[in-house]
Design a protein that fits this description.
heterodimer; A: alpha/beta; Rossmann fold; six-stranded mixed β-sheet; four-stranded antiparallel β-sheet; 10 strands; globular; B: alpha+beta; Alpha-Beta Plaits; 10 helices; 4 strands
Chain lengths: 225, 303
């Protein structure tokens, strides 16, 4: 679904990483780990076209992202659910409206979507917080709302950047369970995290590959966790 | 990137997708600025349009009326005046292109001079020439040929085909009309500039919102429409109000038949009223184009 081929990325001439090749296939589960500043977020952004690689090719659903128009990249993002590090909500809208945003921008906000929405709010445990504004949510609630927004379009790929970064252990386990559930539905999942305990916890329920970015290269840190 | 083209019309913008409008947060100050700018510009546009149309009517009237009339002035000694007048009339009767010619009587000539010399003027005390009024066919007559004949047969006659003073007047009125349209053009440009600045400010202030919208799959077209719809509706509302106030002000101007003067008669007549009601529509169109251009340019930079 998403394929990174010999990818390299430089900031102002200095190489952040190079020669990275990764394939996200249906039902695959990847963790991306590494020290802060190694390029985890950059690599995720390259996956959904928010950045363009300095060298190499990113293929999403068979298309080279370099050849895609801006609006085509936007259409691609409807197939890739992204949980951003800081969630990126629209604070003037309610939680429910924020979660429904992908439906709104793609013109699919109909009655059926409203019913799916209620189901989704229940799934992430935010039914009671539907009409709240994002600033009123706790860290865990924000992450769950961001996850709900990422999956409302039933994307083929879910990309999460430090989804458990601001939450306690119990909440991080709850979020992990949601991501594993999605993976079991056949979605490809890619999670960037520096939280090794999260990776170890995932070991009990899912076959995951751990990719470690270090010294500008990606290494397979462990398989069959 | 998809383009918002003017041909898609105001209707789609106005009816549009209210959901798209909702996802863009309110942009308070720029909203007031757009409303105020559109209102003020529409108010000025009403006057510029009225001026242009009035000048156009004036140019047409002067052109039409004066182009079809000429005058022969007979300046001869008193004892020869009647004979020369009769001779001139005979020449005019046989001149192609002359529909009608008549000798002005003393009372009419006195009336012509009354604005300068008063009502009590006795023309017999002044060496005032005899005037003959000529009404021409649409094609006019051969002025050069007529002058030659008059010079040969009526030595005291001078043909004045009015072109000497008609042309500057018509030219002045035409320039005034052009000035009016130029003003309307400048007003439209100024409004476009203000709306562009307001839209750019709104876009810059909402850059994080735009980043989020693009993250969840919003196309540039979707984002642009939200801004275009908002600014177009504001311009339409502001210009509607400005036009209404402008029309009230025009209606309150002194009327031509009451106050004689160059600027009286400034206003709308007949179907010209319809043009005034087009001002808000044009303002909305200008806002739509300006916002579309600003949005496309800014969106390219933002992501």
């Amino acid at each position: 679904m998403i394929e990174l081929e010999n990818l390299g990325y430089s900031y102002g001439g200095a190489a952040l990483f190079s020669d990275i090749s990764v394939k996200l296939t249906p039902g695959s589960f990847h963790f991306l780990t590494g020290p802060s500043g190694a390029g985890k977020t950059t690599l995720l952004k390259l996956c959904y076209g928010a950045l363009h690689p300095t060298v190499g090719v990113v293929r999403a659903f068979g298309n080279d992202l370099r050849d895609m128009e801006r609006d085509d990249v936007s259409m691609l993002r409807r197939k890739v659910g992204v949980v951003h590090q800081d969630c990126q909500f629209l604070d003037h809208l309610s939680v429910a409206d924020n979660i429904a945003l992908p439906l709104a921008v793609s013109g699919r906000l109909d009655d059926a979507a409203t019913s799916d929405m209620e189901e989704l709010l229940a799934w992430v445990g935010l039914t009671d917080r539907a009409s709240a504004r994002p600033p009123e949510l706790s860290g865990g609630e924000r992450q769950r709302a961001a996850l709900a927004r990422a999956v409302i379009m039933s994307p083929d790929v879910v990309i999460a950047d430090e989804p458990t970064g601001n939450v306690d252990w119990e909440m991080s386990q709850r979020l992990l369970r949601l991501l594993v559930e999605l993976n079991k539905m056949g979605k490809a999942v890619l999670i960037a995290t520096h939280d090794l305990s999260l990776i170890r916890a995932a070991k009990t329920s899912v076959q995951a590959r751990v990719l470690r970015i270090s010294n500008g290269r990606v290494q397979l840190a462990g398989a069959d966790l | 990137m998809s383009r918002i083209v003017p041909g898609e019309g105001l209707r789609r913008i106005i009816l549009g997708d209210p959901q798209a409008d909702r996802v863009v947060p309110p942009t308070g100050f720029t909203a007031q600025l757009t409303l105020l700018a559109a209102g003020a510009m529409a108010f000025l546009a009403v006057f510029a349009l009225a001026l242009s149309l009035a000048a156009g009517r004036l140019a047409d009237r002067w052109g039409d009326e004066l182009a079809r009339t000429s005058t022969i002035r007979i300046s001869a000694p008193q004892d020869q005046r009647t004979a020369q007048t009769m001779a001139a009339m005979q020449i005019l009767e046989t001149t192609a292109g002359v529909v009608f010619a008549r000798v002005l009587d003393p009372a009419e000539q006195e009336a012509l001079l009354a604005p300068w010399f008063g009502d009590q003027l006795d023309l017999s005390t002044l060496p005032f020439p005899q005037l003959i009024e000529i009404i021409e066919e649409d094609e006019g007559f051969d002025a050069v040929g007529l002058r030659l004949r008059l010079a040969a047969e009526v030595p005291g006659a001078v043909l004045d085909d009015h072109s000497r003073w008609r042309q500057p007047l018509v030219r002045a009125a035409s320039r005034l009309r052009l000035l009016g349209w130029l003003s309307i053009g400048l007003i439209a440009l100024s409004m476009a500039a203000m709306v562009t600045l307001a839209a750019q400010a709104a876009l810059a202030a909402t850059a994080p919102v735009i980043a989020t919208l693009r993250l969840v799959g919003a196309t540039d077209r979707y984002i642009a429409q939200a801004f275009i719809r908002r600014f177009t509706l504001r311009a339409l509302g502001g210009a509607g109000l400005g036009t209404a106030l402008g029309l009230v002000a025009v209606l309150m101007l002194p009327r031509a038949e009451i106050e004689a003067g160059v600027l009286t008669g400034l206003g709308f007549q007949g179907w010209h009223w319809a043009l005034a009601f087009l001002i808000p529509v044009v303002a909305a169109g200008v806002a739509m184009l300006a916002t579309g251009t600003a949005t496309r340019r800014t969106l390219k930079r933002l992501t």
